[in-house]
Amino acid sequence: MFVDQAKIFIQSGRGGNGAVSFRREKYIPNGGPDGGDGGRGGDIIFEVDPGMNTLMDFRHKRHFKAQPGEDGGKNRRHGKDGEDLVIKVPPGTIIREAETGKIMLDMTGETERKILLKGGRGGRGNQHFATSTRQAPRYAERGQEGKEYWVILELKMIADVGLIGFPNVGKSTLLSVITNASPKIANYHFTTLNPNLGVVHNQYGRDFVIADIPGLIEGAHEGIGLGHDFLRHIERTKVLVHVVDAAALEGRDPVEDVEKINYELAAYNEELLKRPQIIVANKTDIPESEENLLKLKEKYESQGIKVIPISAATRKGIQPLLIEIHNLLEKADADPIKFKEEFEFFEEKEEVHEPFTIEKLGEHYYVVEGVGVEKMIGYTNLESEKGFAFFQKYLREHGIIDALEEQGIQEGDTVKIYDLEFEYYK
């Protein structure tokens, strides 16, 4: 089954917590702090797998989480880093952030492997917070949280040439004639329900990859039928080969068909109409095709669009078609079409959540210790109203006020932070 879109949840690993530990040996009863650091969380990595051509693997597995880092241990033992998670996708896959629809990553061209989400940093153990005045810190740093997103994987096939046109005009037959592909062919609408890729070994010029885009219908740009599923595969093609039934065997007007399909292309993405086009008038082995062939040439060759008569059934006209495709590809950029990555990752300032402890020594007496609050007292003038307001803001922003309230502090209770004592008021 061909699947070209999937929605999945990705999450990088959180960092491990730093450890609170003290050296305790037989002859060293009061050793210093020796708490180790937490390990780094695992990254989320996307990698191109050339052997994949569908997103079917993501139909049943939707959650992808990298391993968290281990917590630090005693004796300065560093926690083990979390394992990275590698997610393999087919060439040409775009990763979009689900909420905004913005492109985070395009797995095309040289982008064969890329870290999308970095794992969280591990927290520092209490060994890092010892100073000459603070020899036994009883706190350590928590690990940094990983990042998480719902994303949409969207496969846009990588092909040089796209075969487009209404159903049953002979695209699959043409593909089978000029390539090594073997699509199923029958005389009914919507035979091709999946895009088919083929490689053309062109004896008249350069080799190229061609995609048979399933038959479009009116309203495709609005998602009618399988419109969006079909149209997305045209976006990477450099040349559009527009196949029409010149014999009008089903009563369709080939000129109107070209106009309708071009309208659908423009309504979906205006850039598509800027791509070079060739109009292939198929079924010209049937006498009724002559009048329509003249109409097509009269309307489009004056616009610089070649109209090439062929018969896919009898192989008539295949050589001029391959030569013209070669000529247009020679003028095109050789690199695959790549989509701009527009999603902005807001790199949070590496916030150092300075660790702290709160100890309740009496019914109304709380002692707060921590490297951050100690520094704040050292460089803030608490005698001034502005300085004390700044200090209060620090306590609130760093979660110290919330932690005191969780421990049951009431208005009028006393808080001691090193040499500073004050009464708590909301």
UniProtKB/TrEMBL annotation:
GTP binds at residues 165-172, 190-194, 212-215, 282-285, 311-313. HAMAP family: GTPase_Obg (MF_01454). It is found in: Cytoplasm. Its EC number is 3.6.5.-. Residues 64-85, 118-140 are annotated as: Disordered. Keywords: Cytoplasm, GTP-binding, Hydrolase, Magnesium, Metal-binding, Nucleotide-binding. Residues 1-158 form the Obg domain. GO terms for biological process: ribosome biogenesis. PROSITE patterns: G_OBG, GTP1_OBG, OBG, OCT. An essential GTPase which binds GTP, GDP and possibly (p)ppGpp with moderate affinity, with high nucleotide exchange rates and a fairly low GTP hydrolysis rate. Plays a role in control of the cell cycle, stress response, ribosome biogenesis and in those bacteria that undergo differentiation, in morphogenesis control. Residues 159-330 form the OBG-type G domain. It comes from Defluviitalea raffinosedens. This is GTPase Obg. Pfam families: DUF1967 (PF09269), GTP1_OBG (PF01018), MMR_HSR1 (PF01926).
